[in-house]
Amino acid sequence: MLSLNNVSVDLAGNQILRNITATFDSGLTIGIVGRNGAGKTTLLRAMMGLIKVRSGDIRFDDANLTALAGHARAALHIGYAPENRVIFPTLSVEQNLRLPCEVQNMSAGAIKARLECVLQAIPQLAPMLDRSGSALSGGQGKMVALGRAVMIGTRLLLLDEPFQGLAPRLGAEYTEALNRLKQLEPELSIVITESNIKLLGDIPNQIWNIERGEMSLYANQRITENAANDY
Ligand SMILES: Nc1ncnc2c1ncn2[C@@H]1O[C@H](COP(=O)(O)OP(=O)(O)OP(=O)(O)O)[C@@H](O)[C@H]1O
């Protein structure tokens, strides 16, 4: 279970997240929807320990994430695919995928097994493995960023606006990859943000709104055309 208890975050003297309290049950895919600037990235970065929480705490099962350094959170098998993908251009795609596991000192055997599992979920990565990280299209970069997060994120995946800028065909491939992943790993929890609720389709089990740093459960969990038009 992932829980946020009265989480507030300030950036440059402004309050960006305001007393966020939310509980996400294990094994669910949670959608967090909000306009540009609502605080989605800040929330995921706070979960990853990349931003200091001013007050409140974030707990993942028995661990108090707020008390742990960022690298210690990755050791809890939390994977993060940032909005801006951050694929290392001097490394090959395979090296990019392996990197978070190597940082965690996983054995060569465990990394190989994990890579095979990731390729099962995201087979599009297989023909790209030898390619340079600098030679990827935007859509391919999103797939690699997903794969890299999945390499280490066996318990929790945080995906920041993955569908932004993806052509519809690639968006459908991304959705299929998430579906395969959930079949392979039903216990995996996923948090996925978007500014456009329509882009999430049927992926989330539960949807939350974020608006000016405040979060609330999306009132109508059945996504209607009218509700989708709000974004
Ligand atoms: N480093 C920073 N310093 C000061 N303010 C920041 C910083 N990063 C983000 N902000 C502000 O925090 C607010 C939330 O930004 P955030 O990136 O979390 O929103 P978002 O919902 O992810 O939006 P987007 O869809 O545009 O990525 C915005 O008003 C933004 O200007």
From TrEMBL:
Please give the name of this protein: ABC transporter
Q: Hey, which family's this protein in?
A: Belongs to the ABC transporter superfamily.
Which Gene3D superfamilies does this one have? P-loop containing nucleotide triphosphate hydrolases
Q: Which organism is it from?
A: Advenella kashmirensis (strain DSM 17095 / LMG 22695 / WT001)
Name the Gene Ontology molecular function terms of this record: ATP binding; ATP hydrolysis activity; branched-chain amino acid transmembrane transporter activity
The residue ranges of the ABC transporter domain are 2-231
Keyword check for Zinc: no
The biological processes this protein is annotated with in GO are: L-amino acid transport
Tell me if Membrane is a UniProt keyword of this record.
Answer: yes
Alphabetized, the UniProt keywords read: Amino-acid transport, ATP-binding, Cell membrane, Membrane, Nucleotide-binding, Transport
